[in-house]
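Notes from the 1:1 (GR / supervisor)

We went over the backlog. Supervisor wanted to see one worked example end to end before approving the batch request, so GR pasted a single chain during the call. The sequence is below; no edits were made to it. Supervisor asked that the structure be written out right there so they could see what the output format looks like.
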Amino acid sequence: MKKLALALSVVIAAISSPAIAEGNAEAGKTKIIVCSACHGMDGNSMIDMYPKLAGQHATYLQKQLHDFRSAAQTGGKDGRMDPIMSGMAMPLSDQDILDITAYFSSQVIQVTEAKDVPELGAKLYKGGDVSRGITACMACHGPDGKGAELAGFPTLAGQHANYIKIQLTKFREAGRHNDLNGMMQDVAKKLSDSDIDALSKYLSSLK
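Structure output shown during the call:
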């Protein structure tokens, strides 16, 4: 709860801070050719191990690209290390990042029909599990999975189940640690494989 309170303070700070630089979606469209091989021309990746970027909050995408670039520059000491994305982000300028994220955030995510979604997914997402100290996911990501841009919480609705599963597993095993105040690591380390599978399928089913 303390970390959640800290995250909410970020929202207040963001609201009161000066306007940030904006990207140009049209310029971004010409810069995402390489990105499209994995993420699709419109940000709707056809490969389920890669995330759909369409409709994602621009500021969240910006943070991830900055973190990937930082990891490449520091040999993984800072940011978010990924063998593919860190290399892709390395040559990007700040303006490139603004333009690319403006483009992807302006696209519309395509949600595929999810089958065999375990009831456990909705239960954990909406109510958590008090007995295990698991906070409800919707506390940060919202009842509809749309997240909260000012707080840095991403949209998860309609995302590939496999991608979500991979990321939750990385958070649980501390293979990814660029989350705000370590919140996702704290939650994920309490999740079992079946919990992660259920949550991933539930989130992918949200429209």
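Supervisor's comment: The two ends are 28 Å apart (CA to CA).
Batch request approved.
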